From TrEMBL:
Keyword Nucleotide-binding in annotation: yes
Keyword field: Acetylation, ATP-binding, Ligase, Nucleotide-binding
Pfam families hit by this protein: ACAS_N (PF16177), AMP-binding (PF00501), AMP-binding_C (PF13193)
Family to which the UniProt record says this protein belongs: Belongs to the ATP-dependent AMP-binding enzyme family.
Domain Acetyl-coenzyme A synthetase N-terminal, residue spans: 12-68
Name this polypeptide is given: Acetate--CoA ligase
EC number, UniProt record: 6.2.1.1
Domain AMP-binding enzyme C-terminal stretches: 519-598
GO molecular function, one term: AMP binding
Domain AMP-dependent synthetase/ligase: 70-463
Gene: acs
The species this protein was found in: Cloacibacterium normanense
GO annotation terms (biological process): acetyl-CoA biosynthetic process from acetate
Keyword Iron: no
Amino acid sequence: MKNYVIHDLPDYFKQYKKSIKNPKKFWDKIADENFVWYQRWNKVVKFDMEEAKIEWFKGAKLNITKNCLDRHLAERGDKTAIIWESNDPNEEAQYISYRELHERVCKMANVLTELGVKKGDRVCIYLPMIPELAVTMLACAKMGAVHSVIFAGFSASAVTSRVNDCEAKMIITSDGSYRGNKAIDLKGIIDEAVEKTPSVEKVLVVKRTNTEVKMKEGRDVWLDDYYPKASADFVTKIMDAEDPLFILYTSGSTGKPKGMLHTTAGYMVYTGYTFKNVFNYKENDIYWCTADIGWITGHSYILYGPLTNGATTVIFEGVPTYPEPDRFWAVIEKHKVTQFYTAPTAIRSLAKESSSWVEKHDLSSLRVIGSVGEPINDEAWHWYNDHVGKKKCPIVDTWWQTETGGIMISPLPFVTPTKPTYATLPLPGIQPVLMDEKRNEITGNQVDGNLCIRFPWPGIARTIWGDHQRYKETYFTAFPGKYFTGDGALRDETGYYRITGRVDDVIIVSGHNLGTAPIEDSINLHPAVAESAIVGFPHDIKGNALYGFVILKETGESRDKDHLRKEINMLISDTIGPIAKLDKIQFVSGLPKTRSGKIMRRILRKIAEGDFSNFGDTSTLLNPEIVDEIKDGRIN
Ligand code: WT7
């Protein structure tokens, strides 16, 4: 595995330099030495950043599932590929070997073929976290169909718009799903969604909850009526490097969701390489990422990255707090998990519970712990480090996006010294640059600006499905010649990066640029505070003033709220400066969050402004009911 494993800090700097000096040679070797191909490429990379046209490994022929499954059969056929852990702790876990997974994928590919799916067709998958989710995705990849997984928490109308956007021929769903103590009628949601999706010919239904569902004659079929009879022989489709692998929708700041298109070869190479290094993956590890496969984190780091490396990956159906708030810790102990990868929002919610929930489990198997999805605040970082990692496991704070396909900026465990709240250094091949509003590059250290990437990397999304113009405008026009991430970042004196949040979250108060994340961090330092979000609202003199929405650990009606407000502002004053003090502080019981855990600041901004006219699309909110509560409690 030459050029694949980074051993120590000097090696990182050496590899990084090589990757920047000659990216073609760098990726050529990695692709060549670590993956199986039917045919080599004629060109490593070809790109035009103005037109947003990017191609990697052009001319190569491959199938990603040969790399995920077939090639492991000889050496690790009996090794567990997937450990499936049910929502119900009393239901037995499944241990699916590479051989069995390969067989299941081949059978599934035959079922899909029989039902009319062909190479290039789009298949939407709306399933809970059960093995069939992985199996159907891999079956699509094996036959050259393009999967588009829709997180099985989205509403019917969100499903309809995605299915119509990619004109899917088939939807794969289940009768129902379990989440904690709730059972959800997935098929019912799909029935409603497909009323307005003319492209859908078949709905394939997996049994999970054994609940009664309506089946529409000629359209809906049970997997159980096809799968047992299906042959386990399937001839893998030979794909071109740039053939589409999947579409995954991500919400834009406005308008309809963007169908990010990822293609085959570059995505495979990039997720494989980054998985190996960022998680310090070793042959006998048990790796667990708690994300849902319906998000890019699940695609890249539950499925494709781990499987191309021949790893054992855990798929967990449940939620962190069921049956009790120690489920994560119980699962780590049960399966002797070595790498644990989760989101700051989960960390914060579990840190709110008594630490005895963590202490009662043996977490000594852990070697590396990771964070993804949003900036991890100082308090959450330390709680994670102290209670979960026991100060022995490096925290990999991984910055990346649906669009980037894989991790871009992250510490490498046992290589990069970590620093709380810093994603630290770019991975080899990644060239971050900070740009100011006038489109000039900001050089030097201890500066902050708009985070852009200078040179393409293999995992970058190639387009927005059906709308290349939007792709170009969203990512390649603000800073010509560069990919614009939409995030702000700060570079410290050692060259480490700290992601400060979405650039649209920057609030200018009296001419000062203030990032929301550091202010929230300092509010969260207050012992009574569980979580907070701040937004700007128009102010006659300052231009903008700050409005804080604060969740307290205990509702404590008895507490003197005005006194608390003063203390919070003193903290901000002390940690950031009086300029960052909040004009208004409203105590709330929750924040409007998307299902991926992001605060929908657009709604908070409107409430702060006192504009209740139109909150826009709230279909992706996990807790829409909170909006009214916050609105009613707004401070004038
Ligand atoms: C946005 C991308 C990448 C998979 C999950 C989210 C934010 C992501 C970090 C991090 C600070 C982070 C950024 C980014 N983000 N990871 N480690 N530190 N911010 O994918 O839904 O496409 O969101 O999430 O703002 O742009 P996504």
